[in-house]
Design goal:
Elements (H helix, E strand, L loop, with lengths): L1 E6 L4 H16 L7 E6 L11 E2 H9 L2 H15 L10 E2 L3 H14 L1 H18 L6 H10 L4 H8 L5 H13 L4 E2 L1 E4 L3 E4 L4 H14 L17 E2 L2 E3 L1
Parallel strand pairs: 1-2
Antiparallel strand pairs: 1-6, 3-4, 5-9, 6-7, 8-9
Helix pairs in contact: 1-5, 1-9, 4-5, 5-6, 6-7
Amino acid sequence: MKVEIYSDIACPWCHVGKSRFERALAAFPGAGGVEVVYRPFQLDPHAPEEPLPHREVLAAKYGPQSVAMDDHITRLGADEGLAFDFDTVVENNSLLAHRLLRFVLEEYGPDVQARLKGRLLEAHFGEGIDIGDREHLADAAVAVGLDRGPVAVFLGGDDLRDEVLGEIEEARQRGVTAVPTFVFEGQWAVQGGQDPATFLKILQQVAEATGAEAGATEAEAGAGEACSDGACAV
């Protein structure tokens, strides 16, 4: 079974959703036959390529409710063992990080890509790293066991830019408007950071479906505005 996860490093629900899905996958008897690939998506493709304080960026978009939004996701993250320190989070355009994830997928495979994705999320939301900074991205790659040299060479160039932008456009054409969105076997889309029990049920249903659409379930969480329960919407 192949699961493609559309997500953005800038999305806190993607951090929560990754944790919940991985808990479900660990409980799934057929986990050894599941390939998980992370696909790029940008909530704000026009974000400036410069580090800006998260609190200021969110307040400019959503006003006073931004504090409650951060507090809510911080509590949910704690339930997953995830640290969110929004006072230190720095926002930046996420394209460079997505290019690195695509590079790692091609060169080292999906398992290493997943480890890097997790490291980027935890470092961005819990440690205040700048996901647009080449040195910080290289540090994250080294932290998951990669050699800095090839990563630094890649980050110093412009490779895979068109490919990643093409993937993001393809996602929009497929109807992805919020992240995280989980696509099972290229057919069934599940939007939002569902609870582990729901993810486990979906894994079981897709495994049993053997390609028969009638045997699968499409579950979607309402995206709402901004980062509401389950997903961050454009």
